[in-house]
Amino acid sequence: MKTYLVVILLAAVCSAFVAVNNAADQIPYPEGYHKWTNTRTFITGYENKEPKKGDGFHDTYANDRAMIGYQTGHFPDGAILVFDVRTAVTTEGTIAPGTRKHVDLMLKDSARFKDTGGWGFEEFTGDSRTEGRLSGERQKNCFNCHAGKKQTDFVFSQFKE
Amino acid sequence: MKTYLVVILLAAVCSAFVAVNNAADQIPYPEGYHKWTNTRTFITGYENKEPKKGDGFHDTYANDRAMIGYQTGHFPDGAILVFDVRTAVTTEGTIAPGTRKHVDLMLKDSARFKDTGGWGFEEFTGDSRTEGRLSGERQKNCFNCHAGKKQTDFVFSQFKE
User: Fold this and answer.
1) Is this structure's pTM higher than 0.90?
2) Residues of B in contact with A4 (CB under 8 A)
3) Which tens digit of pLDDT belongs to each residue from A132-151?
């Protein structure tokens, strides 16, 4: 449960410091991430009549280079982890994912993001694939939470076969 | 909702005709399927105090060859689709997957399974990776439901980016 709270808190902190990004800060949208490995899934707030910002289907995806990181404990440059949040739609006892609320991602680039453990952070809201919302300064707020996970290369999630 | 019911009904029909498999019928356990593309996810029965057999986290995974099938409408030999069912564990408003209940799979092998649209069906219960439970005759019961989906090469699920 603690881990869920940390992940949700992380997203909340990132989202609380939103600003339109400039080109220098921009991290690209992670095209095709739904085809990557889904490393964890959970649902929050399904009982809330008025869902909060963080409520819904939470899924984490990892690209091939990020999968190396899960195995070795060190995420190589090019590794991308995606935290995807969709609405949770309840119908006759079934809960399925609905529309996308936002996508957060971490991109490993040791040289570019040397001040934040080698990781850059970004968020795209709704269905946007073009407008990252976190400025360089505010990306650092994401890292403030991740900084406590140095032993796993600043990554919260794990992958178990 | 209809689709969910069909998928669950399919699993129920498969499971209702269970017998220990013999070597000739055996379809191997789909090693590493958690790393494949997760094409859909939903939860059923989360409100049931006494969960039914089919209740829980339902996830469908597709290997690379099955992804070709989603794109082209024809699934090539070697395509595997996995239907994974885990318990749904509710803790303080969060639902997460728990232990595995069973894994059903479809393997495309046009020559071997020519009487069932080229697809073979198998089920592994609990954590077993060695004991497929469906005999050749009983695998056909799975196909009886899939036979109605000839226009999508006998596959119920779809993949949308």
Assistant:
1) no
2) 94, 96
3) 777 777 788 889 999 999 99
Q: b/e per residue, B107-125, with b = 16+ CB within 10 A?
A: bbeeeebeebbbbbbbbbb
Give the burial string for B39-51 (b: 16+ CB within 10 Å, else e). bbbbbbbbeeeee
Subunit contact A42:B97, Cβ cutoff 8 A: yes
Residue B43 to residue A91, Cβ atoms within 8 A = no
Is the Cβ–Cβ distance between A133 and A18 less than 8 Å?
Answer: yes
**Which residue's entry shows tokens 């070795």?**
A72
Choose the closest CB to A95 out of B46, B94, B161: B46
| Radius of gyration (C-alpha) of chain B in whole angstroms | 15
Which residue of B lies nearest to A95 if distances are taken between CA atoms? B43
Non-local CB neighbours of B5 within 8 Å, separated by 6+ positions: none
Taking any CB pair shorter than 8 Å as contact, residues of chain B touching chain A are 1, 4, 32, 34-38, 41-48, 57, 59, 67, 91-97, 159, 161
Phi, psi of A94 (to 5 degrees): -115, 140
Under an 8 A CB cutoff, do A1 and B91 touch?
yes
8 Å CB contact of A46 and B93? yes
**Residues B94-149 pLDDT 10s:** 999 999 999 999 999 999 999 999 999 999 999 888 887 787 777 888 899 999 99
Contact B59 A41 (CB under 8 A): yes
Q: Is the ipTM of this structure higher than 0.85?
A: no
Closest C-alpha among B118, B159, B90, B121 to residue B25 = B121
Q: Count interface pairs A-B at CB distance under 8 A.
A: 73
H-helix segments, A1-75: 2-16, 64-72
pLDDT in tens, B73-105: 999 999 999 999 999 998 888 999 999 999 999
SS3 label, residue A8: helix
Query: Hey, what are A88's tokens?
Result: 């949770």
